[in-house]
Design brief:
Length: about 350
């Protein structure tokens, strides 16, 4: 049996399967079956109040899951699907409450990855799929990351190589007016607005009704974190912080933004060059690309790699504050919050 046939047969029998998308690896189950979706929450240790994104093979399938497929949804889906954009819309009764954490809205996207699309077409039902990692740990951008986090808890990972975007999809709510970005991602607001819609950025602490609850539970500050303490420092302060931690006798990792980066766009930690791993007198240095698309692709691999060494602290240079870096800055802020 081919790996794809094996995967779709597991999904049809109500099990979960990890699969590659263009953003990160997802842990999928039949979105229309409550018992299957419950297995995702169990494998990840994910709290039931955090809703899942549903993956579809095309626009028509998405339309069939919503009660109000708006002209904005149509325009955005035509422009960006398959691609890293999740649209939050009113759900219809086909979707069990477990997927949406009991809410009336659902996040849907069509992934831009041949393996994900082949899997969706083979099983003929939509797949609910969060990132394929234990809850609150760093998202997986390779199959090896999935195995490191979920081995023994899931039956199969389809390996489609490193993910090309590297950070999770942009989540855009179309149930508010104007539309709101609930999670910044690979597609920035300015690019979405080219479709003729107005897009607002969300203050995660305050929802549109003025209540102090997050609109999107994934917007809770603690998320995506490595187990090693991560400190974010301005570019001009980072080297000094590294030196003073070394003087205190700490084992230090250092993620720099550097024009000197020697690895190319297709790099993962297998070939990522780390100077001085686990050496007490110098930091373990990872040079990150200056270009945001390449940086995003390598972000989780760099964090997984540094987290795998026996380090006490990772110092990361803050990337530039321009909107094109918003998705990366969001992930780094979350990674740094847990133990800060
Ligand atoms: O790129 C991605 O989006 C990846 C791949 C696998 O597709 N998936 C992913 O799923 O990142 P997850 O579960 O790790 O993140 C889903 C995000 C969370 O922030 C969640 O709160 C938000 O989407 N979300 C899901 N349904 C929502 C809804 N109905 N309203 C608001 N936010 C929602
Ligand atoms: Mg996640």
């Amino acid at each position: 049996m081919s790996a794809l046939a094996h995967a779709s047969s597991l999904l049809r029998s109500g099990d979960v399967v990890a699969f590659p998308t263009e953003t990160v690896y997802g842990l999928g189950a039949n979105a229309l079956d409550e018992a299957s979706v419950a297995k995702i929450f169990a494998a990840k240790g994910r709290p039931a109040h955090n809703p899942l994104i549903i993956h579809v093979s095309d626009i028509e399938e998405a339309r069939g899951l919503t009660s109000d497929w708006t002209p904005e949804a149509e325009a955005l889906a035509l422009a960006f699907w398959p691609g890293p954009l999740s649209l939050v819309l009113k759900k219809n009764s086909k979707i069990p409450g477990i997927v949406t954490a009991g809410g009336e809205t659902v996040a849907i996207r069509c992934p831009d990855h041949p393996v994900a699309l082949a899997l969706l077409r083979a099983c003929k039902f939509p797949l609910a799929a969060p990132s394929a990692n234990r809850s609150n740990y760093i998202s997986p951008s390779t199959a090896a990351h999935v195995i490191a986090s979920l081995d023994g808890r899931i039956p199969l990972v389809l390996d489609g190589g490193p993910c090309k975007a590297g950070i999770e999809s942009t989540v855009l709510s179309l149930v508010t007016s104007p539309a709101q970005i609930l999670r910044p991602g690979p597609i920035p607001a300015a690019i979405l607005e080219r479709c003729g819609i107005q897009v607002a950025l969300t203050n995660p602490a305050v929802d549109h009704l003025g209540k102090n609850i997050p609109q999107s539970p994934g917007q809770m500050p603690v998320h995506y974190a490595p187990t090693t303490l991560l400190l974010l420092r301005h570019k001009h302060e980072a080297a000094e912080t590294v030196s003073s931690l070394l003087l205190q006798g700490k084992k230090v990792g250092y993620m720099r933004v550097s024009a000197e980066t020697t690895f190319g766009f297709d790099c993962t930690e297998a070939i990522m060059k780390v100077e001085n791993p686990e050496n007490n007198s110098s930091p373990a240095v990872v040079d990150m690309p200056e270009e945001p698309t390449a940086y995003a692709k390598q972000l989780y691999a760099a964090l997984h790699l540094l987290d795998s060494y026996n380090l006490e602290v990772i110092v990361c240079e803050q990337p530039p504050s321009s909107p094109i870096w918003a998705g990366i800055t969001d992930r780094l802020n979350r990674a740094a919050t847990t133990t800060n």
